[in-house]
Please model this.
Amino acid sequence: MDVSNTHLLDEAVVTTTLDAIVNWGREASLWPFVFGTACCAIEFMATAASRYDISRFGAEVLRFSPRHADLLIVAGTVSYKQAPILKQIYDQMPEPKWVIAVGACASTGGFYDNYTTLQGIDEIVPVDVYVAGCPPRPEAILDAVLDIQRQLKREAKFEVRNLDFKGKLDDV
Amino acid sequence: MTSDMTMIKESQLFKTIKDAKENLGFTLLLDITAIDNLNKAHPSSTRFELVYVLRHSSFENTMIFKVAVEEPEIGVATISSLFSSADWAEREVYDQYGVNFIGHKTLKRLLNHNEFVGHPLRKDYEITKGQYCTTSQDLMDEMRPLLKERNLDLRQDNLMVVNLGPSHPASHGTIRTLAALDGEKIVAGACEIGYLHRGFEKSCENHNYNQIIPYTDRLNYCSAIMNNIAFAKTVEEMLGVTLPDRGIFIRVIVGELSRVIDHLVCLAAGLLDMGGQTNYWYLFNPRNNAYDFLSKLTGARLTNSYMRVGGMTHDLYEGWREDLADVLTKIDFGITESLKMITHNRIYNERVQDVSPVSAAQAIDYGFTGPNLRASGVAYDLRFAKPYYYYDTFDFNMVVGSVGDTYDRMMVRFDEMNESMKIIKQAVKRIPDGAINVVDRRITMPEKGCVYGGIEGMMNQFKLVVDGVKVPEGEYYGAYEAANGELGFFIVSDGSGTPYKVKVRPPSFYHMAAYPKIIENYQVADAIMTLGSLNVIAGEMDR
Model:
């Protein structure tokens, strides 16, 4: 387009809020970090493969460095041994960030009510969406991503989220 | 049924096992575990007993030694100088039961974290008593002696120490490898596992036999049904019952299908690690078709819980033959397309051939079983060595490699999928009509009509659900050829509906124990491929 034709730009101006435009951009470009530990990670692999195809929802750029990601998908059982690592990864992610707990174990510990399993990752990090299932079907994981997209529209632009969250490992 | 066991004295332990290995030919150490006799109605002489399970070099027979431990803090002599596989096995016993092994080089915790206090599998440790972990260990306590052995010094030799995992895309789950690098070459490696330790064995002691089935699903979650079968089969052998033929054939069909799925996931992920994304689509999509079949049959895609002690939940559905035939065609297509892309692919061949070879003798010493052992040229497959479920009547071949490198480990899996599909096709033709479950009111549930229609049926169901299947008192080791190798269950029953103790013999555990040794002198990128080809499944390894 020839920029000297300023009248064209005049016609193209849309008024909106900064929040709306930033969130519109974020919504379709979530970069997930997959903290896959167990069975649920195998179902996440299916979610990313071509049949279920997470890229239809703009979330296919899987990052394996937490510093690149804004969506933490915890897929699988997290043990007490694993908990400090989960926290470290969460802390390394830049704001704003969202967390999905995939499956019964990540949400509540599932049927591993025992000496080694963390009874839900929300003891360590704040969780935005819980997905039921053991493991959940790929459709359920996709639904969680859509849910994050819906939640994200309500965010204020550059605010740090979950400031008042206090996890079990935060003071030690 | 109970296994034959030889009681040996603490002082004779090393000598006896050495003799069994060198003179009697029991060259494969399968597993070491302990029994805590604290809650037994008739306690034996000591609180702790150790159990050593060995397999003969002809692979048909096992031998089990039992040792009474006088003082757990003093312990018994280590046998890690006889078998490499004993190294981690003894560490696990130390971690879970607190039994010492005299002379063990690195006797430290393996599955539980380093801040853990107590020994969780002791009967007086409460199952729900969790302990938070705040920091990770640096593993240098294991790395330093390794470097010293090799006459290396971090600073002088300009080495770099890097962590691979526990959260790494190519670590296939949650495995941590600490590698000392000289340039790109790994000069020493140490592994830390236990990140996915989920307390399977402790949970088993608190659930009745059929309630354990869902837990077994989550051991090797890539082939859940095989774990179901292995567990149910072991319990059935203890009960002394055999399934009707139709039940056996269903187990063969879904079991072999699970083997195919397991290998598909292993190869798809392994090839994805080296950038072969197209292979991933070709191998992963037919897996989805197989899961469609399984979810239609069992109601779940991944964790099926299809088996029960004495049979399975229900029969095959109407129209299963067509669905299964369709799945097999699609899997065959995926395998063919994937092989087309790699067979003559120079990049693939050069990256995997002659990488991390494991010789036959080494593989036995490490406790390898399954495709990884066969890749090294050892013809051991339980379906041949000790056929069960009519495997001796099926026409299929054992796939054996030659040098045991990454290439062999992957190719054995490719070919095994074809052999498994051959078995499925024969079983589909031969499957008879009739009952699928053992008809014994002490084991299997009554018909729903009887439960709702009469007091006997209702009480029968009630007792089976609440008390569980009562298994005769005894100790038994049962083995099954699962996708990754010999999956064994060592079960101690006190006669009630809840096992006194269950120990899994997980193939991946021993594969992983060898991993830091076999990646030495290869590059980091090779180590990633090696891990993929060993198909270490964290759920099964850490339990």
Q: What stands out?
A: Chain A touches chain B through 40 residues (CB under 8 Å). DSSP finds six helices and four strands in chain A.
